[in-house]
Design a protein that fits this description.
Pfam families: RRM_1. There is one protein chain. The protein is α+β, with helices and mostly antiparallel strands. About 30% of the residues lie in helices and about 25% in strands. Among the domains are: about 80 residues, RRM (RNA recognition motif) domain (Alpha-Beta Plaits); about 80 residues, Alpha-Beta Plaits, CATH 3.30.70. The chain is globular and about 50 Å long. It starts with 5 loop residues before the first helix and ends with a helix.
Amino acid sequence: MHQQTNAHFYKEIGTPQPRQYEQVGGGDSVEAGVDKTKLIVNYIPQYTAEGELTSIFGNVGPLENVRIMRDHRTGYSYGFGFVKYMNAEDAARAIEILNGFKLRNKRLKVSYSRPPGQDMKYSNLYITNLPKNVTEEDMDNLFGEFGEIIQRTVLKDKITGMPRGVGFVRFSKTEEAQSAIAALNGKQLENAMLPLSIRVAEDHGKQKAHFLEHVNYGCTMTGGGKRRLESYDSDQYDNWLLENY
C-alpha cells in the first residue's frame, strides 16, 4: 500500500493539516479473526479528550465510536483507547496515516485491536525498584524489545509528583511478559538502589488485598474500625511487601 504524507492526505480530503502531527511509519499486519474496523490507540497524552481523538480519526472516515480508557472514579486516563470505524478500508488508512503521529509530547501508536483471550492473561507486570528519575519513555526502551507494549505507567508521589520507583507494563501476550521477567527480574539498573523486582500484576493484586485485610484486621482489633487502603501511605504498603513476600 502506498504511504501518503500528512500534507498529501489532508489536502486530499480537503481538511487543514493539524500542525502537531507527524507521520513516521505504517501499521501492523492483520491477524486472523481480528475486527478490521476496530483500532487500539496507545500513548494518548493524559489530558486528551474523546472529542479530540474523534476530530483526528474522523478526518479519515466515518466513525462508529471513540473511547479513551479511564479510571471510573477519578477519570485518570490510562493512556490508551479504542476507535471503531464504519468501514474496514478507513481503519486501514487510519493505521497508515496516524500510526506514529505526534500529539503534543507523545507519538500515537495505532494498530488493529485484537479480541481479549488467553494469550493476554497474566501479561500485566508490576515493577519495583525502578530509578527515581525513570520516565515512561525509559520503560519503553527497557521493555519494548520483549514485545508489543499495550500500556505502561510510572507511579508518582501524590505530593511531590516525583516517580516512586514503581510502575506497570502490559504486554500484548503472556509469553512477552514472561520473557521480560526472565531477562530483567533482578537486573541492577543505573541510578537504582536495588535490583529490579518484576512480578505478574495479578499476583500483586492478591498481595494488595492481603495487605488490606491485614490493615483492616489491625484497625478492628484496636477499635479503629475499617479504613480504606487509600488512607495509608504507599511506603507502608511497600515495606509490608518486603516483610511478607
